[in-house]
Amino acid sequence: MKKVFKLKNLGCANCASKMEREINKLNGVKNATINFITQKLTFDSEEQNLDETTEAIKKIVKKIEPNCSLQVT
Amino acid sequence: MSEFKKTIIRLAIGLLVLIAALSLPLSAYFKLAIFLAAYLISGGDVLLRAVKNISHGQIFDENFLMCIATIGAFFVGEYPEAVAVMLFYQTGELFQDYAVNRSRKSITELMDIRPDYANVKRNNELITVDPEEVAIDEIIVVKAGEKIPLDGKVIEGYSMVDTSALTGESVPRELSVGDDALSGCININGLLTIKVSKEFGESTVAKILDLVENASSKKAKAENFITKFARYYTPIVVIAAALLAVIPPLVLRDAAFQDWIYRALLFLVVSCPCALVISIPLGFFGGIGGASKSGILIKGSNYLEALAEAEIIVFDKTGTLTKGTFKVSEIHPVDISESELLEMTAYAESYSNHPISLSLKKAYASDIDNTRITDVEEIPGHGVKAVVDSKTVFAGNIKLMKSIGIDCRNNDAAGTIVHVAIGGKYAGCVIISDEIKEDAAAAVNKLKAEGINKTVMLTGDSKAVGFKVSSQLGLDEVYAELLPSDKVSEVEKLLAQKSGKGKLVFVGDGINDAPVLSRSDIGIAMGGLGSDAAIEAADVVIMNDELTKIATSISISKKTLRIVKQNIIFALGIKGIVLAMSAFGLANMWEAVFSDVGVSVIAILNSARALNVKKL
Questions:
Q1: Between chains, do A38 and B108 touch, taking CB under 8 Å as contact?
Q2: A35, B217: Cβ pair inside 8 Å?
Q3: 0.90 exceeded by the pTM?
Q4: Which sequence ranges are marked TM in the entry (chain B) (predicted)?
Q5: CATH number of A2-72
Q6: Residue B219 distance to chain A (closest CA, Å)
Q7: Interface predicted TM-score (ipTM)
Q8: In this predicted model, what pLDDT tens digit does every residue of B285-301 receive, in sequence order?
Q9: Comparing A73 with A21, which gets the higher pLDDT?
Q10: How many domains does chain B have?
């Protein structure tokens, strides 16, 4: 299933590519890409652990760029 | 107050305190205190972020490097410089944020084709809802000046609509009852009532937006290179800095520790790859956005990059180079006048709706008087027999003529030949051929001007037709009488001929050439607007039918790559020079900060040019 999250206050392109790398390492996430320009994270996810995955992504985002927050749409 | 203004005021205060520290006659300790205050005012947030990031295990980020560099400057006694460099860095960051936001805004504006609302008729009332809440078969009303929110069929009204957001074409289209209305178009004058045929998620506008936004996930080689480069660049420069601070003072006899630490600090400032990491994807995204504005959908940065290397262009004939509609091109009468032959043929064929019959009627151009025709009989696979003005007329192919015992020959005309016999006597033939698109020849010339080595046409039609079309357009090669599966093998042969780096582009209508589109390096579908199949199958979709846009897409690609290359060379060049100068003690912190944030700002502004595809 394809999911799209918005990344609010994503300000650093290098951080975006770091996040992208980390998120792709998560279980249950495939083909994660972050578009720095539209500030959107897109990935394929397994339905059943979506909540867990979302939490893990939130943590990664906070860790790499503290000002940036994930908005679940 | 906006974040932006707050930062400006904070930096201004920092600057004033710095000036105060420099100009007031105070004792050394007091001065240091004021310098520290100025430093905290201007760079406190950077320090805080650096500390936070370290606690998260993120070292080597920009904030951390800047802190080390400036705190280092304090320790080697360069107080004013430490504060000034922090100010300069913060100002640069501010400019960088501004430039990024501006580009983001202009890109989102460019892609602002998403309709915000739909006026839907429910229980005889017109209510405004989100387009996503409208179901199939509901009735929507679009007023003048509004965007058509969903795809559907016009059931009432007449209007001109502006399709430029989708096709880049400024000529408005006419919509009346029975026509398909496409979402994303703007209704110019009339009132349209539309029966919705697709949910919003499946509508034209949603699909286009989705494609453009996701295009950046298919990364170009240049982007992958930068991502890899960035991963190694920072650690390498930081290690180099550490070595620079320690080794020379130990090895060289009269080297001062302070001096080499300062040089190492400069390395740290230069070590951020941000200029490249931001500007390269921005350039590609800008190129894709600009192309979509002119009606060219490019489905990935990789395709945008590959278009610049196009070497062979292969066209499908029918529906791509030609209109796929038929027209009377030649009339060869025998013993009667041209107009008489055309009239009799048009009458004999008037009961049929076959494209050939329609083209005959169109060429005849007068109304058909049905009372003159009797006893119409269609002979499948042969043609038609009819009595016109009480004379028996046979019109059809050579098999029909043979079956009624009339001797005639096919000439080698390029097209479909309709032989005619009137009253048992051969009366000549009419040749009907497909029309070449008006801009086809211009498109081929433009492609050659863009440096395409070879233009090829594939067709299932006869050799005569194929060669005629290709000589009219000046194509280099033709392969005719191909079955659909032959087209794939021809493309494979051509793929083997091209040079290693060159790319093969296939241009088709996207409807029945999906296998060829996917086999070629880049598949371009023409006339994608309203055709989901074409949008699905191709890598690049030209929304309207303009063949010249193939050349446009190549020049957009070349321009984008030029910008990307400029940025790579510029950013790496400046960083390289500053690193070299720092190592030899020729640079100061100002130059180092410029090579970080200054270069970023310039590269971002340069990338923003990719958006502008008007001036090509």
A1: yes
A2: yes
A3: no
A4: 7-26, 232-252, 264-285, 568-587
A5: 3.30.70.100
A6: 10
A7: 0.78
A8: 889 888 988 889 899 99
A9: A21
A10: 1
